[in-house]
Structure formats: structure tokens, C-alpha cells
Amino acid sequence: MTDRIEAAAAELRPLLQDFILWVRENAPGTDSNLVGPVALWHRLTASDDVSRWKRADLRKVLLERMPQVVEDPDAAADGMVPALRAYLTFLSETGRLAKGSSSLRDLLSELDRLEDDFVDAMEDLVAEQDDEDYDEEDEEEIEGLGDFEPFADELAELPTIRLRPDAELAEAVRKAPLIGKARDLALWVGSERRVGETSLLTDAEIAEAMAALGLPLPQDDGRPLSDRVPALWNIWNLAIDLDFLQPEGEDTVGADPDAADWPFEDDDDALDVWMAGLHSVDYGDPELDDEDATIALSGLTRALLVRVLLASGSRPLPELRAELTEAAAEYDERGAEAWAAATAKYGDPLNPVLDWLAGYGMTEVEHDQVRLTPLGMEGVVHLADDADIELDARPAIDAMTAFDLLSFSAELPEEEADAEFAAWMELREPAKAAGELLEAAAEDDADALIRVQAASMVGSLGEVAVPAWRDALGEPSLHPYAATHLAQLGVDDAPPPTQADTHWLILDMLTISAGLGRPEFVSSLDDIGTASSLVGLLDVIWKVPHPHLEELLEAIEQAHPDKQVGKAAKRALFKARSAHN
């Protein structure tokens, strides 16, 4: 088997190398490394041709083989299916998808159908690994000072957190002093600067770097200079986090060419940089001469952030100081001693915390009141998400796009969704809002829930939405809704809804119910009519070019208790696949 694996890997290597180059231009953000195991086991277990892919191969490789061989199920759950989707697209668009393969459309449709099962399988593996790790751990887990988990219930009860738009956040990022210092340090480093093993820089270089950053040299207390400049090393580490500094060899580092261009003009690029360094909040924790004392106060910056968030983003500094003093003593037996040492060194243990957070654009202090900035609120929401704690965080109403509104409303109770819609409409002219909602719904013809949500909202606006409905007639996924609503409004020159329009609406409804579970799906089928009515519908509905048609027909075949309906669904599925191949 080892020889077969090596031979298959050698056969795949040139193809995967070309894929890696293709991904950079065509699917940035894809983890191309995740494709290798799938492609390898496809070759070993499903096909003697690395470029020939059948629908059935996907199930065999993803659901039967990967759970047995995957090394990092967590990473696989997050990125393997998107990576494989990009790989199949690469094969098709570059003419490498071999004769005898299923069409790209069929492959991607099957991949979409299998994705949830694959993710579930990977999550099961993660859970098994966690259980094994837990069994091996004899000591009771101890919460840290900066853990968000003890506050999970309180965080869940917070009122809706409103986040500012990306353009505003990006502008704040560009003004963050610490990112500018990280850039300045990278530019001072230059290219191919040699670093040492015990101290990255010589004393002379440290003095130059401190001057370049506008930082004062510390007083000589007998220790090596490198031990007395933690601020420099924090900015050095931040520059690495931001990709401003990169290793160029075993003992050399250099500035990334893009570092000199900071602040970046593109909002997404600026925010990506800031997000890459978000975990640098830990660099704000006090650093003490005693390592154990430093550890005792590790997490202090996060501890402050979560407490300010719980106070809706603003809290008096004396209250924070008192509460964190008590927390430090509670979480570590040396906490009180460490707090005293940090007080002696910094005047207040919270001084380095607040200095770093201010430098990263996350907090402001005015009249002894600590306040999260919009950028800080965004950051704490992300940190909570990293801790698997869900917050009710949404864009601010005045910054909410139509797609934002549709996406969030689809997950809300009806009364709350109506309130969100009403607040959003207060800031917009109704006819223009109708157009925005329908344009957003047209962005992805596979998202039936967003489409139904948009149609419901626009439908509630009445005659003012007629121009938007007319425009939507040209969108295949929205034409059925537009024709139906224009007819209901009595618009004389509008095209009447067709049978195909009705069938599309039915398929959208079934798509949504299928996502709710098998009982809801079967119930929605019963709502359509008797078994004979369903058979008659299935005999014609296969002609509708709906993005979820095939998977719905498969689901009907498997879920409906009446065998005649199952057979009709199977016939319809065969006809649909024949028509699309």
C-alpha cells in the first residue's frame, strides 16, 4: 500500500502544484493543502484517473474514507469542502476534468448535498478526540483570568449589540498607533536582517529600533538590555502577527513588501490586517520580573474587555480596578502578590492593559470612564465568538444593508424581524428600499430563504414596490414572485404567473422546509396535496431549472411514506439529470 500511495502522490504532484497557483488568482482564501488528501484517496479508492470524478466518488471519499484518515478534523470541517469545490472548478475550467466525469454542475450539487454530513462526521471526530483528551486529563480544568466562559450566560442576555459598517471601522484601523509602529519596525528591519539565538537583536540594534519607534531606552538595572525592552518585543511580535515581518531563512527576517504601503486604502485589506493582530490584546497583560507573577496576571486584558462589554461598552475605571483586583486573587494563589508587584512597577496594573488597547484602537478613557470604541466592540464580539460564545450582534440600523437585514431577519422570531424591518424602513424611501431588497435576494439564486424573506418584506410595501417588482421580472429566481405580486396588485400590463412560476414557488417552499428537518419536510409535502396530486406534480416539476431540484427529488424519494410518490420522484430525478447533462 505504501508503494501505491507514493506512486499516486507522485502522479498528483504536478496537478496540485498547478492548482495552488490557480487558487491564488481564482479562489483566494482557499486552503489548497486540504485538497491533497482528498485527491490522493480519490485516486487510491475511487478512480484510476486522477482527473476523472463521478458524483459517487464524492460520497466514497468524503464520507467513507476521510473520517478514517483525516489528521485535523477541525480544519477539515472548516475548509475541506470549499477547497474541493475550488479543485473541481479548477479541473473543469482548465480542461483537466477527464472524459467520463460527471458535469461540474452535478459534482458541485452533490458536494453541496454532502457538505452537512461531512461536517457532522468531522465534528464527531473532534468530539471523540476531546473526549479522549478529557479522559487523559486527571486534573480538574481551572478557569483563567481572561476566560469568557464564566460570563457566557450574562453575555447571552445582553441586548442587541450594534456594529458599525466596515468603512468606519477601517478608517479607525488606519489610525491605530500600534499598527503604525509595527510598520515602522518592519521598515527599520529592512530585508535579510540577521537575528541572534538568545537575543534577536544586538544592544546597538535594540537602541536603533527603540529610536525608530520613538520609545525611550530603559534605565540600566544590571540586566541585559534585551530583558528590559518588553515593549519592543511586543511590537516585534505584533509585526509578525500582521505579516509585516516575515522569516527569510533560519536566522534572517525581513519586512514584507506590502508593509511600506500601510495604511492600506482598501477597507477589506485594512480590516484583514487588524483582525490578524486581534489576539495581540494579550500583549497588554503586565510583564513582571517574576515569571510566575506574570503568569498570575495573564488574561488581564481580556478580563477587562469582557467586563466592559457586560456593562454595554462603558464602565468606571475604579470599579474595574476593584473587580479585577479581586478576580486576580481568586484565579491564582499568587494573584494578590502579582497585583501588588504590577502596582509597584506600573503605578496601576491596568495601565499597560489600557495603553495597549488604546494603541490598537479598542478603548478610550475619559474622566475615569473606560469605553469600548466601535472597533473595540467589533473586536470583543470576535473574541467571544472565538470562545464559542454567541452574542446577538448585528450591524447598526443606519449601516445595515438590505442583504444584512434579510440574513439576520431570517434567523429571528417573526415579531423581532418585523421590528428590525420597520426600523430599517424608517431610514429609507420605500420604493428604493424595495429595489435594494430584491437586488439583494437576487445575489444567490440558491438561497430560497433569503428570497422568500425579501418577497414577504417587499410585498408588505404595496403599490410603491411595483417598479421594483417590474425590474425583478428579469431575474429568473425572482420572476415567479414578481409576476405573482404584480397580479395581486392588479397591474394590467404585467405578465400573468405561469405554471412554471407556481412550481418554482413550491420548490422554494420545499427547500426551506427540507432545511428544518425530515418531519417538517414531510409535512410540507402533505400540504401540497394527496399522494396522487404529488405524483402529478412530480411528472412535470422536473423541468423547472431550480438550483435545489435534484436534491429535493432525492429527498422526496427517501422521505415520503407512499411508494408511488417515491417512484415518481425517482423518475423525475432521472429525467432532470438527463436534461441537465
UniProtKB/TrEMBL annotation:
Keywords: Coiled coil. Residues 97-131 form a coiled coil. This is Uncharacterized protein. It comes from Streptosporangium sandarakinum. The lineage of its organism: Bacteria, Bacillati, Actinomycetota, Actinomycetes, Streptosporangiales.
